Amino acid sequence: MANLVTVGRRIRHYRTRAGLTLDQLSHATGTAPSQLSLIENGKREPRLSLLQEVAETVGVTVAELLKDEAPSGRDAMEMELARAQETPAYRELGLPSLRPTKAMTDETLRTLVGLHRELDRRARQAIATPELARRANTDLRARMRAIDNHLPEVEIVAQEAVDAVGHTGGALTHRTVALMAERVGLSIVHTDDLPHSARAVVDNAHGRIYIPPASIPGGHGLRSLALQAVAQKVLEHGEPADYGEFLRQRLEASYYAAACLMPEKASVRFLDEAKRSRHLAIDDFRDAFGVTHEAAALRFTNLATVHLGITLHYVRIAGDGTVQGAYENDSLPLPLDATGSTEGEVVCRYWSARRAFARATRTTEHYQYTDTPAGTFFEATQTGIGAEEYSITVGVPYADSKWFRGRETPLREVSTCPDVTCCRRPEDGLAEQWHGRSWASPRVRPYLFAPLPHGTYPGVDDRELHEFLEAHAEEI
Questions:
Q1: pLDDT, tens digit, for every residue of 251-283?
Q2: Domains of the chain and any CATH numbers
Q3: What are the backbone dihedrals phi and psi of residue 453, each rounded to the nearest 5 degrees, phi first?
């Protein structure tokens, strides 16, 4: 059933339009006026039989009463004002709720609603502290670790979407992605004038997904962008209320896109066969589904524990050794700050993630065993160059190395991090030798000093976004 408040408003609207009082509707339907009042105020759910009687009495269909939209512009404003006054931010002010009366003019009501909208906009655009953002990211990583990085409800929705368009195997084509979008009422439009701060834009009012005319660097192409846009509708994502919700929605959208590009059934079949032959390899998984190495590595983290019984870790680092993304459920001792966040921290120089940069030839994966305080891990690392140099690592505890290609590598390193004597403290005498006799200009990462991106969707310029949507709406 539609929102109870909306249903109640629609009943009241059509009752008054029919010129009936509450008592008259009560007499016609055999329902107490007090019960009808509760229903009209959204405090009680009406029985279907009552809805049928009300609809016949006021001269509309039941479907008309159940539409999920305000019956008039005035009702829409009154409902928005009521919602705004129920938010925690308004309640903290200690002000009474203002209930619109018939005597309140539309202009006054519009002013009140506009005031709440502006307060909400300013709250959304308030710059969060880096600490709050890092804590939100840490909380999300902890939740995903607790469920082995697997979202079964998203897997089901993605598998149903793939099955519905008749995809049976192999790489998902652009045409198939377009069909998946059409099934949820969206068409894909390629344009070269997207807002500079957005990778893709969805116009739900006109059923359009705007994406670039060519694949963007650092992602796995237009298919993923389009599917992430489809996800916001399939997964019923609204405007995020805070940074934590934004991160969760972004993760779910990316997960949905990956689960469509690499469907669970087909992926598990492929991985099961590779495990049985003791030849698991991320690059084979990548090639089988036509995605990037990073996409395959991340998708492997979704499936390895739940379907293969393998705990693991994933780490992406920049060329300077700083973590750009990480996940583990195998107890690898990731570097953490005081908030528990690992992004921006520097990994041990003896880990495969960094040792791979030292290779003269990087066309294949770098295989290595690494002894740590938490045990020995087998790791496979692939390097790449996008906006900057980076490496992607997938590793598993020593006992599970038997399932992977590259396990015969003789390379082995020892890491005692987070002990500072491992790789951060200079060797004996060096610090004293160069104290006061050296100087260096640091390569500062600009994001350390940048405020967190703000806007309805962090990082996207609201004005530029809305001007883009308006300009393209005029073309339709």
A1: 999 999 999 999 999 999 999 999 999 999 999
A2: 1-71 (1.10.260.40), 74-126 (no CATH), 134-260 (1.10.10), 263-414 (3.30.450.20)
A3: -60, 140
